[in-house]
Specification:
Layout: E1 2-7, H1 13-26, E2 32-37, H2 44-49, H3 53-57, H4 67-72, E3 75-81, H5 89-96, H6 99-104, E4 111-118, H7 125-138, E5 142-143, E6 168-170, H8 181-202
Parallel strand pairs: 1-2, 1-3, 3-4, 4-5, 4-6
The structure holds flavin mononucleotide.
Flavin mononucleotide binds next to helix 1 and strand 4.
């Protein structure tokens, strides 16, 4: 049983969430988990201007995902930061290169989940996840969110990400806020959930 966590992260927040998703998935026996990042589309000059060189270097150990790896996975968790309430361009470009998989029906019946990060609390986390679902549904993937069975979902004693659609974190306007323990718990929960569902589906 192979679960792939594929993400893009400019400043590291989605990367941190991806690690938590993978940790959750690995807690399910018999599930092999790989983390991959999608190819960068920004020039080095743009990355310098955006102050992202250090955070990119910190992710350089994560292999870049190939399209074929998607086809080999039984379940895939997609992580993307919000860009105007949608997935980022890097993830869009990667998914737009999956036409061959679509023609082959290679992802039909496979499980998928989405997690995200936004700068502000109401900056489009839910729309990012839901609009990403649309692409995955065109591939015939079976979507799993983050149900209220995860008890961190209902917390109102602190500012927190997380919705029934998927795990999320709030990065702050300058990226100064890092995933809270509750948000990481949501990411772990969703990773474990998808892994358990994938096992059941295979059985
Ligand atoms: C072009 C662009 C558009 C963005 N749009 C939004 C947005 O609509 N809402 C929001 O809250 N944050 C927005 N952000 C902030 C990012 O979502 C934030 O930097 C990201 O979640 C941090 O995750 P990362 O560290 O994994 O890159 C935007 C950032 C950029 C560069």
């Amino acid at each position: 049983m192979k679960l792939l966590v594929v993400y893009y992260s400019l400043y590291g927040h989605v990367h941190r969430m991806a690690e938590a998703v993978a940790e959750g998935a690995r807690s399910v026996p018999g599930v092999e988990v790989d983390i991959r990042r999608v190819p960068e589309t920004l020039s080095r000059e743009a990355l310098v201007k955006m102050g992202a060189i250090e955070s990119q270097a910190a992710q350089s150990h994560v292999p870049v995902c190939t399209i074929d790896e998607l086809g080999r996975a039984d379940a895939i968790m997609f992580g993307t930061p919000t860009r105007f309430g949608n997935m980022c361009g890097q993830m869009r470009q990667f998914l737009d290169a999956t036409g061959r998989l679509w023609v082959q029906g290679a992802l039909v019946g496979k499980l998928a989940g989405v997690f995200t990060s936004s700068a502000t609390q109401h900056g489009g986390q839910e729309s990012t996840i839901l609009t990403t679902h649309v692409t995955l549904l065109h591939h015939g993937m079976v979507i799993a969110g983050l149900p209220y069975a995860w008890d961190g979902q209902s917390r109102v004693d602190q500012i927190t990400g997380g919705s029934p659609y998927g795990a999320s974190t709030i990065a702050g306007g300058k990226g100064e806020r890092w995933p809270s323990e509750n948000e990481l718990a949501g990411a772990r929960w969703q990773g474990a959930y998808l892994a358990r569902l994938a096992r059941k589906l295979a059985a």
